[in-house]
Amino acid sequence: MAVGLLVGVLPAIANVGEVWEAIQTLTWLESGSLLALAAWNIFTYQLVIMSALPGLTLGRAFVVGQISTAVTNTLPAGSAVGVGITYSMFSSFGFESGSIAIAAVVTGLWNTFVKLGLPIVAFAILSFQGKGNAALQSAAITGLIILLAAIGVLVLALARESVAYQTGDRLGRIATSVGRRFRRGPYDGWGDRLVTFREQSIDLLRRRWHWISLSTIVSHLSLYALLVLSLRHMGISAIDVTGAEALAVFALVRLVAAVPITPGGLGVVEVGYTTALVVAGGDEELVVAAVLIYRALSYLLQVPLGAIAFVVWRSRGDWRVGE
């Protein structure tokens, strides 16, 4: 599917030869600035998990983050595999399972909050400029409803110990019921475990909520900045596609890509960005060139970096407990 979208749709939108010619017009200075921003973007990914997992160093965060991202971007159901790899590697570094789980849940929630919130921000800016549209309005309203509901559930779960216990207890009963069919279980004590999880989550958020929030927002905006810089270096000016319009496209595509249709959203993301940016006013060939550059630096680059990170992890036995 991913290959079909890339090979079938993009050439129908723009002339491949002209797209390649546009990419070749990049100067050394422009290429350098794109690489620098891409490096900064990758760095911000590590800040997010470091803020949620106290004691994690930058080097270890980079290794785990790049390996799991490379897996997510290349394998079907890569997100699930990536979570397993992340848990296993952090455990090998000596972090407790509870701390790892809390960090994963909190960073996942905060990333989701930002993804849901960006369409709202983009719609507000465009509406102020008199450029709001129905599609963005629908996404903004949907995002706002889901965001408020998610925050409400989170606050309720954190505020009341009884809610956490009842939720865990019910989940344990469901797991036990399902497990009987496979001769597994019972799964007892889930209520108490979720209460403990709640207490540890509250402690983490009290101490580091501001760093988690700031690093998450910076990470998303850095990725957005990489998209805008790719557009500008390809000759798509603010007259063609404004920063607010680019933010709206970025927000909508990120929201759609949250559904794991293909590994890393390959094909879906490229077509989504291209179609929306052309509708916004960008030249077809220049838009495709900009999107391919952006995806090469934000998606494709993660794969070889993941391979390098794996070699580093294998060679650093001193990082792992018991070796």
- Ends apart, CA distance between termini: 43 Å
**Distinct helical segment count:** 13
Protein structure class = mainly alpha
What share of the residues lie within helices? over 70%
What are the secondary-structure elements, in order, as H or E?
A: HHHHHHHHHHHHH
Extract low-pLDDT stretches.
none
Count structural domains: 1
Average pLDDT reading: 85
How would you characterize the largest beta sheet?
none
Rough outline: globular
Count of β-strands: 0
Beta-strand residue percentage: under 5%
Report Rg.
22 Å
Characterise this structure.
This protein is an all-alpha fold and 323 residues long. The protein has one domain. The protein contains 13 helices and no strands.
Topology:
Elements: H1 2-13, H2 16-24, H3 28-52, H4 58-74, H5 78-92, H6 97-128, H7 134-159, H8 161-181, H9 190-233, H10 243-257, H11 268-280, H12 284-300, H13 302-315
Helix pairs in contact: 1-11, 2-12, 3-4, 3-9, 4-5, 4-13, 5-6, 6-7, 6-9, 6-10, 7-8, 8-9, 9-12, 10-11, 11-12
Outline:
The protein is mostly helical and 323 residues long. 80% of the residues lie in helices and 0% in strands.
Any descriptors?
323 residues; mainly alpha; 13 helices; 80% helix
